[in-house]
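Before the break, one more example. Copy the sequence into your notebook; we will annotate it together after we see the structure.
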Amino acid sequence: MSPTIPQAVPANPQRSGRQLVAFGFFWLAALLLVLAAWLAIAQAGRLLHWTKADAEVQRSEVYSRIQRSGGRSSTVWGGAVTIRYLVNGQPTVTTVDRGFQSALRPWMEHWTRHYPAGSQRKILFNPEDPLEADLHGEWNLASFSSPAEFGLAAVLFLWGWWRLRGVTPGS
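Here is what the structure looks like once it is written out:
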């Protein structure tokens, strides 16, 4: 009978903290890039398939609501713009919400100041649901600001990943 030769067990070194942070940066960047692409495609779809219209701003306002979380309550602020436009010759009035709230009232006030009452805007509306409107009615940087911001954040995470992945423990 021949003696058995012990099989070599592959080394499984522990990952360093830097490698784990680099791994996290890479996956955060990947998720942010997917989100940026999805937002850009959705906005391009609106710009290509929704109907353009000239709208008049009826009013813009900052509103507040109480948010309760974990036994505490805080005031959050939102912004909304009411617009009037024609759909198939019929006047339509709808309110476009900012889409998120903030604890900073001045931030929402700054946004609503871009839409003074009586001003004219190019908008887009969904032909299948004319009350669904988008205040960005033309191809410009503002139409793609959110995807661009998420893409920039992803680039920063990729830069961090690139810097961290090449670092060896002894350097």
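The longest strand covers residues 51-69. The radius of gyration is 25 Å. Try to locate both features in your own notes.
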